[in-house]
Design brief:
Order of helices and strands: EEHEHHHHHEEEEHHHH
Number of domains: 1
Helix content: 40-55%
Number of helices: 10
Radius of gyration: 21 Å
Shape: globular
Largest sheet: 3 strands, mixed
């Protein structure tokens, strides 16, 4: 079913989320209208409106997610949500890497006091937790006039180490960038042993950073 009309409908918001951004859970400041209403001449973007699977909706958003959502070209709010999460993941990659490289206890016991990294010691874990919460936030089901639109918001997500990624590929990209891993080699190893051994693949590939193709092939045989 398509919704070519321009009427904008407010979504039903649970009481506990009445002040939250639907995309990341931070305090909401704006309403993101989707699909957008293009009043100029017909364009490829306008086709997204005519092909939308739901009516035009007002989605509560924080200022940052509002800006990111406007950069996404999609025909459903679930696809917009995925695009926003992917952009948040890229923006806060360094903050999320804190939780990969450190534990909270290690930061507390580090010897950064009084040095140029003392500010990092005090704020790093908080920055990580905020980034993790925003990327992993699962917006409430969208209801329009009492009907759940069933948009399959988290159908492709991948959860690892407490972080919800838009997809498995996004998680692979994230870890390959954080640890400077060879992505094709990482993907090959993951395909061989299965996604349930994702953590093992990370540790294995980290041991082979800078290795030759021959060394990688021989090590992969042993790993499997």
């Amino acid at each position: 079913m398509t919704y070519p009309n321009n009427e904008v409908s407010a979504i039903e918001i649970p009481f506990e989320h009445r002040h939250h951004c639907w995309f990341c859970g931070e305090p909401s400041q704006l309403n993101f209208c989707f699909p957008k209403n293009y009043e100029d001449n017909f364009s490829e973007d306008q086709e997204l409106i005519l092909n939308s699977r739901h009516p035009r909706l007002n989605i509560p958003a924080c200022a940052e997610c509002y800006r990111l959502a406007n950069q996404v070209k999609a025909d459903s709010i679930s696809a917009v949500n995925e695009g926003v999460k992917r952009r948040l993941l890229n923006l806060y990659r360094k903050d999320l890497a804190i939780g990969i490289n450190w534990t909270e206890e290690e930061l507390k016991n580090s010897e950064f006091e009084g040095g140029c990294f003392s500010g990092f010691q005090k704020s790093a874990w908080f920055m990580y937790e905020v980034a993790k919460a925003r990327v992993s936030f699962n917006g409430w089901p969208i209801e329009h006039k009492g009907i759940d639109l069933d948009l399959d918001i988290d159908g492709q997500t991948f959860v690892f180490d407490g972080v919800t990624y838009p997809s498995l590929e996004d998680a692979v990209n994230h870890y390959c960038q954080v640890f400077s891993l060879n992505k094709p080699f990482f993907q090959t190893a993951l395909n061989k042993v299965g996604v349930e051994r994702f953590a093992n693949v990370i540790r294995f590939c980290r041991l082979l950073v800078g290795s030759t193709s021959t060394e990688q092939k021989e090590s992969l045989k042993e790993f499997i």
